[in-house]
Amino acid sequence: MKLSVWFIILLLCQTCATPKVIKFLNDELDYSKYYTYRLIHYKSDDKSYSPEGMAFFGEIEMAISQNMAAKGYEQADKPDLIARYEIVSTTVTESNTRNYDPYGYNNYYFPQDARKHTEGIILIELRDRKQKKLVWQGSLDLKYKMKKEVQLTMLESINIIFESYPYQAGSNERITSEK
User: Fold this and answer.
1) What is the C-alpha separation between 97 and 109, in angstroms, rounded?
2) Helix H segments across the chain?
3) The model's pTM
4) Which contiguous run of DSSP H or E holds residue 166?
C-alpha cells in the first residue's frame, strides 16, 4: 500500500514538472565576439500560409527577438549569429477500446472514446555566420489540447528554451540562474 502511494505521488510530481529543455552548447567558441543576430525561418516566407498562420509566425519571431534583446543582442543585416527556428507538430489520436457495460451486457452499444491532442517540438538554434558552426541549440517538446493553448504554450516554451542559453552579448562569462 505504501509503495503504491509513493508511486502515485512520484507520478504526480513528474507530470507537474517543468518540461526539460534539450540543449547543445559549443564550448569551443569565443562568445565575446557575438553582438548581433539575424532571425530566419524559411517557412515564414511561404505565401501559402493563412493570415492566422503568418501572424503566429510573427508572434514566435517577436518572442525570439525579445529574448535575444534581453541578452543584449541586436538585429543586423550582416550579423555575427544566425538565429533559426523550426516547428514540427502532429495530431495524435488516442482511443479507448475498453468501453464496456459494467454489467456485462451489450458491449457494442458503447462508443469508443477517442481523444485528439497535438504534439510537437520547437527547435531554436544560433549559428556563427562566418564560421558556419553551431553555437547553441535548444529544443522543447510540446503537448497541447485546445487551439487557444497553442500560442501561449509556444511563447512560454520559447522563454523556457532561452533560459538555457547562458551568455550575454559580447561576454564569455556564463549567466547563473537564480532559481
Assistant:
1) 13
2) 2-16, 51-70, 147-162
3) 0.73
4) none
> Which residue segment(s) compose the domain that 149 sits in?
20-90+113-162
**Domain count of the chain?**
1
pLDDT tens for 62-88 read 999 999 999 999 999 999 999 999 988
Between 109 and 52, residue with greater pLDDT: 52
- Of 67, 99, 82, 83, nearest to 163 by C-alpha is 67
The Cα–Cα gap between 153 and 158 comes to 9
Does residue 152 form part of some domain?
yes
Distance CA 68, CA 53 (A): 23
Q: Does 172 map to a domain?
A: no
For residue 149, name the pLDDT band (cuts at 50, 70, 90). low
DSSP code of residue 174 = B
- Helices 147-162 & 51-70 angle (0-180, nearest 10): 20
The enclosing domain of 47 has a CATH number of 3.30.160.670
